[in-house]
């Protein structure tokens, strides 16, 4: 797997590249500090599989970087990586053409697993470790049960002792997992798939 990380913090970029290549020696990682530098590297690297773009790139938005890569290299999978892990940003990443969203707080193992799924053509949007397009996790099943009871996100957060933004990430992952458009459709699809 060939990865290009665009991040304007050299220490993070070098550390990320080193950690990934130590975890999976068959991965090649290159880094760039700007979107323009990344586009130039991609043009010279026809075997590039995935570009990871940091959300905060100085004066440039990573979302803009995703769009620019999509225009120039539509066959390269695009992933937004960020320390801000809220559902609204995940949705904006998807709208900008991302195949994945990775939080910087995730473990290297979780990041690697998500990148491997993106490389296989899967979409990985949601919290690290979530299983969009696959089986919901145990926590997601708890969230689903509370949605079925009519609980709003705030009520679910209170009942499970988690942050409301975490609930939003679980809901996003559930929508992806069952192929639903919204919460109402989620319940319909979950019942069809025997999850409720």
TrEMBL record:
It holds the Pfam family GerE. Keywords: DNA-binding, Phosphoprotein. Residues 2-119 form the Response regulatory domain. The keyword Zinc-finger does not apply. Residues 129-194 form the HTH luxR-type domain. SMART domains: HTH_LUXR (SM00421), REC (SM00448). The modification 4-aspartylphosphate is found at residue 54. The keyword Nuclease does not apply. One of its GO terms (molecular function) is DNA binding. PANTHER family: HTH-TYPE TRANSCRIPTIONAL REGULATOR YHJB-RELATED (PTHR45566), NARL SUBFAMILY (PTHR45566:SF2). This is DNA-binding NarL/FixJ family response regulator.
């Amino acid at each position: 797997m060939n990865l290009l990380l665009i991040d304007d913090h050299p220490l993070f970029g070098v550390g990320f590249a080193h950690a990934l290549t130590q975890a999976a020696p068959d991965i090649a990682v290159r880094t760039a500090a700007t979107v323009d530098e990344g586009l130039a590297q991609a043009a010279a690297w026809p075997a590039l599989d995935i570009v990871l773009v940091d959300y905060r790139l100085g004066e440039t938005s990573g979302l803009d970087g995703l769009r620019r890569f999509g225009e120039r290299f539509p066959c390269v999978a695009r992933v937004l990586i960020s320390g801000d892990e809220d559902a609204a940003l995940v949705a904006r990443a998807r709208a900008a053409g991302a195949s994945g969203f990775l939080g910087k707080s995730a473990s290297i193992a979780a990041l690697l697993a998500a990148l491997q799924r993106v490389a296989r053509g899967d979409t990985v949007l949601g919290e690290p470790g979530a299983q969009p397009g696959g089986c919901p996790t145990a926590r997601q099943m708890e969230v689903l049960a509370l949605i079925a009871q009519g609980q709003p996100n705030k009520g679910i957060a209170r009942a499970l002792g988690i942050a409301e933004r975490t609930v939003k990430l679980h809901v996003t992952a559930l929508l992806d997992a069952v192929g639903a458009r919204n919460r109402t459709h989620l319940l319909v699809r979950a019942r069809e798939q025997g999850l409720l």
